[in-house]
Each structure stands twice: as C-alpha cells, then as structure tokens.
Amino acid sequence: MKRAVGCGYKVNFIFVCVESLALCQVRILERVDSGGHAVPAEDVSRRYSRSLRNLASAFDLAERVFILDNTEEKRRLLLSVEHGRERETSPSALRKSRRAQKKIPYLPHKRPNLQNK
C-alpha cells in the first residue's frame, strides 16, 4: 500500500473480518469439507493476528476505508471512511461492538482519528 500511495495511486482498503480466530478456523474446515482447500492452523493464526496489527496503518494510507463484519450470515458495513472523514457507520453494529470490544479483537480499542462529517 505504501508503494502504491508513493507512486500516486489512490488506495481503497476493504477489510472483511470475523469476530474470532476460532470462527476463521471453523469456516476453513467447512470449506475443506465442501471440497475447498485447507490452510494450516498456524498460518491462519499468523495471518489473522497480522491483519489486525496492520489495520491502523491501512487507515493512514488509504483514501477510502470500508470495514465489513462477516461474522453472521449477512455481512454488515461497520464503518466507511473517505479522506479521513467518517461517511457511514452502522450505529447498532458499533453499539454492539463497543459492548463486546473485549471479546471482538478486530475492532481497535482506539478508533482512528477521524474528522467529523
């Protein structure tokens, strides 16, 4: 992303997440049972943790950011940011998430420094 921004590209960042590493692993097992490919558990764990660590930097680099929660059957838009300004937020999703922040590690405890709409 840094290189693309440095070359003058506009970067859109779409982060699709689920509430836990365990859910990622369950979905992979379901995919394997349906004929899909497997992913070693240590790779899933490493990638899950790394993606969460990199989330804050992506906010700083991207022109537009979309955070989607794919935990439930229907995906929910949690947050949309354009040029550092919050454009759309799902109040009920964020309320739920704030109550559950200790259980849902993918939501930053400190939200990015966003400008008002």
From TrEMBL:
Gene3D superfamilies: P-loop containing nucleotide triphosphate hydrolases. Residues 84-117 are annotated as: Disordered. Residues 95-117 have a biased composition (Basic residues). InterPro entries: P-loop_NTPase. This is Uncharacterized protein. The lineage of its organism: Bacteria, Pseudomonadati, Pseudomonadota, Betaproteobacteria, Ferrovales.
